[in-house]
Amino acid sequence: xxxxxxxxxxxxxxxxxxxxxxxxxxxxxxxxxxxxxxxxxxxxxxxxxxxxxxxxxxxxxxxxxxxxxxxxxxxxxxxxxxxxxxxxxxxxxxx
Amino acid sequence: xxxxxxxxxxxxxxxxxxxxxxxxxxxxxxxxxxxxxxxxxxxxxxxxxxxxxxxxxxxxxxxxxxxxxxxxxxxxxxxxxxxxxxxxxxxxxxxxxxxxxxxxxxxxxxxxxxxxxxxxxxxxxxxxxxxxxxxxxxxxxxxxxxxxxxxxxxxxxxxxxxxxxxxxxxxxxxxxxxxxxxxxxxxxxxxxxxxxxxxxxxxxxxxxxxxxxxxxxxxxxxxxxxxxxxxxxxxxxxxxxxxxxxxxxxxxxxxxxxxxxxxxxxxxxxxxxxxxxxxxxxxxxxxxxxxxxxxxxxxxxxxxxxxxxxxxxxxxxxxxxxxxxxxxxxxxxxxxxxxxxxxxxxxxxxxxxxxxxxxxxxxxxxxxxxxxxxxxxxxxxxxxxxxxxxxxxxxxxxxxxxxxxxxxxxxxxxxxxxxxxxxxxxxxxxxxxxxxxxxxxxxxxxxxxxxxxxxxxxxxxxxxxxxxxxxxxxxxxxxxxxxxxxxxxxxx
Lengths: 95, 492
Hints:
The complex is a heterodimer of chains A (95) and B (492).
Chain A: H1 5-15, H2 21-38, H3 73-77, E1 83-84, E2 87-88
Antiparallel strand pairs in A: 1-2
Chain B: H1 8-16, H2 22-40, E1 43-46, H3 48-63, E2 75-79, H4 106-113, E3 117-122, H5 156-163, E4 169-174, H6 180-186, E5 189-192, E6 212-217, H7 220-230, E7 260-264, H8 274-289, E8 293-297, H9 305-320, H10 339-350, H11 353-366, H12 371-395, E9 398-402, H13 418-423, H14 429-434, E10 438-445, E11 451-458, H15 463-475
Parallel strand pairs in B: 2-3, 2-4, 7-8, 7-9
Antiparallel strand pairs in B: 1-3, 4-6, 5-6, 5-10, 9-11, 10-11
């Protein structure tokens, strides 16, 4: 697998990142070297092997559906870069 | 009393018997931080005032003869990806450089309930991504054995602080070796617990199916005591296993008799430093002498562990780190016109290059068209790696291996070559993929006097057996008692 400049642009978009030209070139060569190594996995026979996304089997850990106070609004807003009227403030999103 | 030669448990005992006060011990370590950390840079934040206040409060309880746990009054420090209420938790990143969490991590709460005094927050690779603590936004930490060298990572600050007498013990986190490898590089002891043993509530997420908080200390007995405090079920972490805190009461008889230890022959191959190989094989001889049975065997799929690990860890990271958008907390770009621009600019200006690289790799392996060839394949390899361990543990109580293929390398030596850095994780990442526990303890020094670590890997929830073996090893060796010296005398 080779990552070209087009794919780098697509990954930037998926990752919500904006790279400089220098960073793009570096990312492309680094990711290609890493993928060359990762492609070793292709030789491993994984036919009929169930993917393991978690080390142990899980059963759902349900709790009672009770109304309880959640974290205080002011506490949660404390770290917000910008806030207004008890809400997070962001640039205008609709015209 | 020379605190630098005492374990945390020994200090705790002196405090309990009122031969030392928590305040004087705390002052001693703050003094050490002031003297040594200009060189080492293990701390990102020192909580002098808070710590002394905590120490006074605990001392009052001790003076009232309250029944307190063994480590009450003993100071500790915490890796900076573990949340501390109203205290900066920056994760080694510009992105979180102003973040004061509204709550403390479960592990911190439990330490404080047990009477710990929190000295400060410890440096780390940005978002725990790295093996050298060089990717930290707050500058690299130096190895106390040779300040030209890295302390390992990502819990480099946690290991260096203990090695440089800046804390009697610390908490780190381990996603692919981030507790064990820095322990190996800095000559200290550490435990990566079974997945689900220690609550991840309040641990800033990197790769959620791999992350675990664990202890770093001067010897394995300290580590066991800390782990018995921070482990146990927590309803706030959905993946916390419903078991009581780990009980190590059977771990300190000092015997390794009839323990069956497997050595994976294929771990001792190209890429393993000769001095490391020699020290680890000599450690196996020590185990033999104290009654363990040693067997050589082949552990299959070793060469697929790093590819599988980087696929899975980066995939999970790309998802976990999508929360950093410049809106709710953390860094916000000043140069954004619209909302999409705000997300992209905040992330691009707030994250360092290693984090960006891993997010992009994660986005790639999860993207449509590549998902099956990479992400799914990685999870299948993970299943085979776990199976390899399961089969080994039918025959052996534990596996003995090097912790890392080399000793600490020079600052700057590997940082421009990410793949080379990743290959240093060869012996540690498969443990996280399988969710099993492992310890790292010092087992020797290379020709230049740099520490070497030994890893013992066990099946899920076998921490007491691993500690039993490591404790017997430390009773019969003194590598863990050797002290780093390079940070003394004001070297750069």
